[in-house]
Design brief:
The structure holds two protein chains of two kinds. Chain A is mainly α. Chain A has one domain: Orthogonal Bundle (MetI-like fold), CATH 1.10.3720. Helices cover 79% and strands 0% of the residues of chain A. Chain A is built from ten helices and no strands. In chain A, α3 runs antiparallel to α8, α7 runs antiparallel to α8 and α9 runs antiparallel to α10. The radius of gyration of chain B is 21 Å and the shape is globular. Chain B has two domains: 197 residues, D-Maltodextrin-Binding Protein, domain 2 (3-Layer(aba) Sandwich), CATH 3.40.190.10; 95 residues, Periplasmic binding protein-like II (D-Maltodextrin-Binding Protein, domain 2), CATH 3.40.190.10. Classes of the chains: A mainly alpha, B alpha/beta. At the A-B interface, α1, α5 and α9 of A face α1, α4, β7 and α7 of B.
Chain lengths: 258, 335
């Protein structure tokens, strides 16, 4: 634990406490319509309802599970394709020259802009949703992998060469470990970007999913369900990020002690 | 670092408080006597398009006019709730939703009663000939719309469990694309997409048939109560223009279809065809509907949404009666 982190945690908790307290106070006066800010009790009731009876045919956990399944499948495909391609592109400028224009072009595009094309090509079922999430996650991983390799000190590689390492050995024993910190930065960013794309992916013809639930509830002005869904998405997002950080700490145990 | 977090925390708290006050008192809509009206439209095929073509809003309302285009009643509701528009156009389902959720509006005008203009179309070759054939098929419709309401009621009237049909939520443009790629078998939708679908599709049922069985859907104009109270003359004039427009549609359909086709960018023939698929009311019929049946129509729409578990509860009929008013039609007609 870093010095003073306990105190900072306390401050963060106080912030959250103030916001929640403000929520209680503002809604308790009854001057704000529940349409704008539903009462915490209504949101809680919506949560209990969604857990027990479900929302439109699926329980809350099924909605969340459906979304996380989409997220994880797309993410795994991202990891197994973007990491090797990124590292290779960092190592070999020819490969980089092939891939970079494609990635540089689509990376800044808003996902909704090309989602229409994806649904036309791949249909309205799962594959177009997965493709959207995949594309959203691919670029950040790829780019940080490239950056991670490019940044490695020439000395390390030369040193390994002097000791008689071949290209393959250099890649696996020098470049890969040295780039790992950047790889993980990419992995974290990618998960975040994918997660924010989730709602967009569930906009077309979904019948389950946490993003779909929020969208559907908003159509019926169900602010209680919308608030509940957004809070759950927020918490899930934090948990996913923490999970990646945990894995990072296990894998790169030398981080910060280079 | 410590300081930074504290500042971040305080900013977040201030922001959320600011947001709360902003919500309670949105000032983007028109203020009392500010001499401005913001009209939200869906470009539905009714008198609104005639008024747009003739530029009546700009020239006759006597105040500055801003016209905003929306894609769905859902967006109109959000705009009304936040005070971003003063008068809005929406179907009976979104209007019922708005009232059930306590948005402070009044229904001042029935723009049209929906007939064949909303139709359940099945793709040729999908094997769907009757409603019963929908079992196990994919049917698309924009959720929370009048078409969605009609589709679910059509299934209910036939005694088909809606869980046996795969009902998908899509906006109309997406429905068109999914139809072309063969992703869906049928769709309950309106023009212009309906016209595209019927090119290689067959009508299974429509809102006219449903209306005959008591499931009435309509398009309405609603006004923010606050605005109507402060600017009754503008609202009356607005209704008067709708009456004038309906008169043109009902007496001179050639002129009406010419003007509607021009605003929508469709052919005159299509426009002429489409206006036969709605019913447009005259002053007497408006007053009759608004005074008698319409509140009950909205109430049954809201009750159905409760049954669907889309909303938790619907207010009493008296609340809908309070929200539906013939006041402005009466004033406009007596001029």
């Amino acid at each position: 634990m870093k010095k003073g982190s306990g105190k900072n945690l306390l401050i963060s908790l106080i912030t959250v406490g103030i916001i929640v307290a403000a929520w209680f106070i503002v809604t308790s006066t009854g001057s704000v319509s529940e349409l704008f800010i539903p009462k915490p009790s209504s949101v809680w009731k919506a949560f209990i309802n969604a857990v027990n009876d479900g929302y439109k045919g699926s329980t809350l956990f099924k909605h969340l599970g459906t979304s996380l399944q989409r997220l994880m499948i797309a993410y795994l495909i991202c990891v197994v394709t973007a990491v090797p391609l990124g590292l290779l592109s960092g190592y070999n400028s020819r490969i980089r020259a092939v891939l970079e224009p494609i990635i540089e072009f689509y990376r800044p595009l808003p996902p909704l802009a090309y989602y229409t094309i994806l649904t036309l090509w791949m249909g309205i079922d799962e594959s177009s949703k997965l493709a959207l999430l995949y594309l959203a996650g691919f670029a950040p991983i790829y780019i940080s992998c490239v950056a991670g390799v490019v940044r490695i000190k020439e000395d390390y590689i030369n040193g390994a060469k002097t000791l008689g390492a071949n290209k393959r050995q250099i890649f696996f024993y020098v470049i890969f470990p040295a780039a790992l910190t950047d790889v993980f930065t990419g992995l974290r960013t990618a998960l975040g970007v994918e997660y924010t794309t989730l709602v967009a992916a569930e906009m077309v013809a979904a019948t389950a999913g946490i993003g779909w639930m929020v969208l559907d509830a908003s159509k019926y002005l169900r602010s209680d369900v919308v608030f509940m869904g957004v809070i759950i998405m927020g918490i899930t997002g934090i948990l996913l990020d923490q999970l990646i950080r945990l894995i990072e700490r296990k894998v790169i145990h030398w981080k910060g002690r280079s | 670092m410590k300081k930074l977090r504290l500042i971040a925390g305080l900013t977040a708290a201030a922001l959320s408080l600011g947001m709360l006050t902003a919500c309670g008192n949105d000032d983007s809509g028109s203020k009392e006597g500010s001499g401005k009206v913001i009209i939200g439209t869906l470009d539905l095929v009714n008198g609104d398009l005639i008024a747009q073509y003739e530029k009546w809003y700009e020239t006759e309302l006597g105040v500055d006019v801003e016209i905003k285009k929306f894609d769905s009643g859902k967006d109109i509701n959000a705009a009304l709730a936040s005070g971003s528009i003063d008068i809005g156009q929406e179907g009976s389902s979104p209007a019922a939703l708005a009232i059930a959720n306590g948005i402070d509006i009044e229904v001042i005008w029935i723009a049209d009663i929906i007939g064949k203009a909303e139709t359940l179309a099945a793709k040729n070759g999908s094997g769907i000939e009757t409603l019963a054939d929908l079992k196990g098929k994919k049917v698309a419709t924009p959720f929370a719309s009048t078409a969605h309401f009609s589709l679910l009621n059509a299934l209910k009237l036939e005694g088909i469990d809606e869980n046996e049909v795969s009902i998908l939520d899509m906006e109309t443009d997406k429905i068109n694309a999914a139809w072309q790629t063969g992703d869906i078998d049928a769709a309950y939708v309106w023009y212009p997409v309906l016209g595209e679908l019927l090119k290689d599709g067959t009508a299974i049922t429509d809102s006219e048939q449903l209306a005959a069985k008591g499931v009435v859907t309509a398009d309405t104009n609603v006004v923010r109560k606050e605005y109507a109270d402060a600017n009754p003359d503008v609202v009356t004039k607005f209704v008067e223009l709708q009456l004038k427009a309906n008169d043109i549609i009902n007496t001179d359909s050639a002129k009406a279809s010419e003007e509607i086709s021009s605003v929508l960018g469709i052919t005159k023939e299509d426009a002429a065809d489409q206006i036969t698929q709605f019913k447009y009311l005259n002053a007497d019929e408006e007053i009759d509907y608004l005074d008698k049946e319409f509140a009950a129509t909205l109430k049954s729409t809201a009750d159905f949404l409760v049954e669907q578990k889309s909303i938790t509860s619907a207010p009493e009929l008296s609340e809908f009666e309070k929200r539906v008013t013939s006041e402005f039609v009466k004033k406009a007609a007596s001029k």
